[in-house]
Specification:
Layout: H1 10-16, H2 22-33, H3 35-40, H4 43-50, H5 54-63, H6 69-82, H7 97-118, H8 121-132, E1 136-140, H9 144-159, E2 164-167, H10 170-179, E3 184-189, H11 196-207, E4 211-216, H12 221-225, E5 228-231, H13 244-265, H14 267-283, H15 288-291, H16 297-300, H17 308-320
Parallel strand pairs: 1-2, 1-3, 3-4, 4-5
Helix pairs in contact: 2-4, 2-5, 7-13, 8-13, 9-13, 10-11
Length: 321
Amino acid sequence: MPMTAPMLTLQLLQRQKDALPLAQRQVIDVILRDPGAAVLATVEQLAAQAGVSMPTIVRMCRRFGFDSVREFMVALAQTLAVSGSHLHRSVEAEDPTDAVISKITHAAASALTHLGRSLDPARIDEVAAAMARASRIDCYSVGAASSFMTQELQSRLFRLGLTANAIFDAHQQLVSASTLGKDGVAFVISHVGRMPYTLEAARFAREHGATVVALTQPDTPLAELADLLLPVSVPQDAVMRVGTEAYLAHLMVIEILMVRLAQILGPRVVSDMQQYKRLLETHGFDSYEYMGFQQPVQARHGDGKESRSGTVGAKARRKVE
């Protein structure tokens, strides 16, 4: 009579991970980060991602009762096919609120930690240098998530004093691509990395001599097309095509890139940005002046004295009393 195959769930891997040697824990981390990709990976690929040897993966599989890596992966694939939450990759339907908070925040922190380890400093510098010397930077995207990122990137570049546009329309992207020239940069953001008309605009920009920068997943058509790739790999979201962890990872790349770009552009840019901040604090839509209110005296002078209107109000109250 054949033996029953061992049970394997993502929760079991998570629970028993801490009892494993460090090298085997690294393998579990890779699997939990993206179980679907782990199932499709070869032993060599899995070992490379975890930074361990192939025998380490074999030993890890045996710790869970499997004689081979193949048997382990078959069990994992079966688990993914019949289980898993449709709410979040780490959250089960019966989880209480504290578990939901813990699992989602830990998953996001893990994704950002992986991003920090995977980003190539030399590539960040290449992209920042290309943007610093560009005559114009046009940012392309399609879809709600990527368009949000593109608008954020254009706004940050504008504050750095660079000529930049955020373009979402297919025809305008083609017009932009045809006019950027060898001194321009086409910065394309697409987590999915295979939107047809955005790919066409990126290809057109490259043919006209522009430098094409792509913020996308590796091994996508956009990644292959780019001159400079900023790869972002996060686990697939259970609900959205571009999930929260992808949002956070893209924003983090933009933040890193903008800080590095400001360093390259020099002290004048930093001084200008501080001036913009002071200006908006004084005259922005949420300032006291714009709203027609008078700031508290403490905020204006820090001397603790009453304002004129405050004194008048106090006198009025005393008169009534």
